[in-house]
Amino acid sequence: MLLNATAALIARVCLVILFPFSALDKIVHWQQALKQANSSFLPGGPVLLAVAIVVEIVTPVCIVFGWSDRLAAFVLAGFCAVTALLYHPFWTHPDLFSAGESKGREEFWEFLKNFGLVGGLLLVVLGLQLATVGQVVRHPLSSGPMSATPGDAAAAAAASPAEPRRGTVAGESKQG
Question: 162 or 114, which is more confident?
Fold first, then answer.
């Protein structure tokens, strides 16, 4: 039980660890961060920057400690999606597919990293049940239904109605 709780805590910390450091970077390098905040079409760079700092400090703490973690993860996922769209517009750079250094490719990878974080944060929002460490050890290669043991498969089959055979409607037999 303690091992499972520790693993879950470590996973949450790893998911959000970059945000407090990003907030600190914005505070320490305010002018550079303000320049980026002002680079989008949204007005109010200083307000946007202050909101970003608060989001990057408060939501990770809530997620790690489980205080309104679904709401916090939803807010942080939205923050990541919006910042990806506003500040990493890889599609505006003509050098995306060019050889050598490319601002477009750099923005593309930053964009994808943001959406990777969105996916992880949405897992917190959805509250999907974590596998226990024991389940991971028993089925290390897959979390899907194919990794279930025969006993697990029998229990799942008993819990859900049988699916109709191909070419038949549920409850009918194929006459022929």
Answer: 114
Neighbours of 56 (CB within 10 A): 21
The b-or-e profile of 72-97 (16+ CB within 10 A means b, else e) is: bbbbbbebbeebbeeebebeebeeee
Give the CA-trace dihedral at 38, 55, 15, 40, to 10 degrees. -20
Tokens matching residue 142 = 């897959």
Which has the closest alpha carbon to 60: 145, 132, 117?
117
Gap between the Cα atoms of 115 and 121, Å rounded = 10
**If you write DSSP's letter for every residue of 145-175 in order, what string do you get?**
GGG--HHHHHHHHHHSPPPPPTTS-TT----
CA angle (151 as vertex; 147, 157 as ends), nearest 5: 85
Q: How many CB atoms lie within 10 A of CB 52?
A: 20
92 backbone φψ class: left, alpha, beta (φ>0; ψ -120 to 50): alpha
149 pLDDT band (50/70/90 cuts)?
A: low
Angle between helices 103-126 and 2-16 (to 10 degrees): 150
Query: Quick check: helix, strand or coil at residue 16?
Result: helix
